[in-house]
């Protein structure tokens, strides 16, 4: 267990405090990149501008099923 004690001093605590904001920004950016990369619809539909893609896909699907006139009139069901 002497290895743990080696990195538990006040110097390393201060280094950790200094690295924390950068690490959080890096982790958050990596998480957002992962969501974008996987195209996860559950979360991406709430991202402004990017989420419109799913509404357009849904509308195109409804037009294929019911026709343009019915979709524009609001009779999708």
UniProtKB/TrEMBL annotation:
Q: Which Pfam families match?
A: UCR_6-4kD
Q: Which GO terms describe its biological process?
A: mitochondrial electron transport, ubiquinol to cytochrome c
Output the Gene Ontology cellular-component terms.
mitochondrial inner membrane
Does the keyword Transmembrane helix feature in the UniProt annotation? Answer: yes
Classification via InterPro entries: Single_a-helix_sf, UQCR
Membrane spanning residue stretches: 20-37
Keywords, in A-Z order:
Membrane, Transmembrane, Transmembrane helix
Transmembrane helix in keyword set:
yes
- Do you know which SUPFAM superfamilies this protein is assigned to? Subunit XI (6.4 kDa protein) of cytochrome bc1 complex (Ubiquinol-cytochrome c reductase) (SSF81518)
Query: What PANTHER family does the record point to?
Result: CYTOCHROME B-C1 COMPLEX SUBUNIT 10 (PTHR15420:SF2), UBIQUINOL-CYTOCHROME C REDUCTASE COMPLEX 6.4 KD PROTEIN (PTHR15420)
User: What protein is this chain from?
Assistant: Uncharacterized protein
Q: What is the lineage of its organism?
A: Eukaryota, Metazoa, Spiralia, Gnathifera, Rotifera
């Amino acid at each position: 267990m002497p290895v743990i004690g080696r990195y538990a001093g006040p110097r390393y605590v201060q280094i950790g405090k200094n690295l924390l904001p950068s690490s959080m920004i890096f982790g958050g950016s990596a998480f957002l990149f992962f969501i974008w990369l996987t195209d996860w619809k559950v979360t991406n539909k709430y991202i402004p501008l990017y989420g419109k893609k799913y509404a357009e896909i849904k509308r195109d699907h409804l037009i294929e099923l019911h026709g343009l006139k019915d979709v524009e009139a609001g009779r999708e069901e």
